[in-house]
Amino acid sequence: MPVLEFLLDHDDAIMSEAGELSWMTASVQMTTHTQMGGGGGIWGAFKRVAGGGSLFMTEYRAIGAPGEVAFATKLPGHIVPVELGGGREYFIHRHGFLCATLGVTSASAFNSLSVQASSVATASPPACRRQGTAWLELSGELIAKDLRPGELLRVHPRPCRSL
Fold first, then answer.
1. Is residue 68 part of a domain?
2. Average pLDDT over residues 143-161
3. Does residue 156 form part of some domain?
4. What sign results for the dihedral spanned by CA atoms 23, 26, 27, 28?
5. How many beta carbons lie within 10 A of that of residue 121, not counting itself?
6. N-to-C CA span, the chain
7. Domain that holds residue 94
8. For residue 69, how many C-alpha atoms fall within 13 Å in the half-sphere facing its CB?
9. How many other CB atoms sit within 10 Å of the CB of residue 125?
């Protein structure tokens, strides 16, 4: 199973949805709240929940000394880093968001003038935007496709099946 480990210097931090942590060292302080990863306050938290995410986000910060934080996938697959910025936005499978730097927004995108999305009646998958790096958990095999401008590839969001 893939594992993503972070070596944090003093006062460095990383965030994830609540419940994603695999392990951390004693110098890492864990703070859980609704203010991160989707805008401030209750509206940001509501957007995350409506999109299939968690109400709470957790910040892991090294205090007083360097520390280590690790996240592992739930199923065999891959952990993929995605660099954000430059106006790019990514729509992510419901359980695909693993963790991110503090500048990243992970939220459901609703129909508005400033955000690409579907309507409130049909919540879309979590979106990542702003500046920073997000790490995505992808189960199974990873196949990259480069699309030409205007080319469309329709992908079936097949749920995991147990044997």
1. yes
2. 77
3. no
4. positive
5. 6
6. 18
7. 3-139
8. 26
9. 19
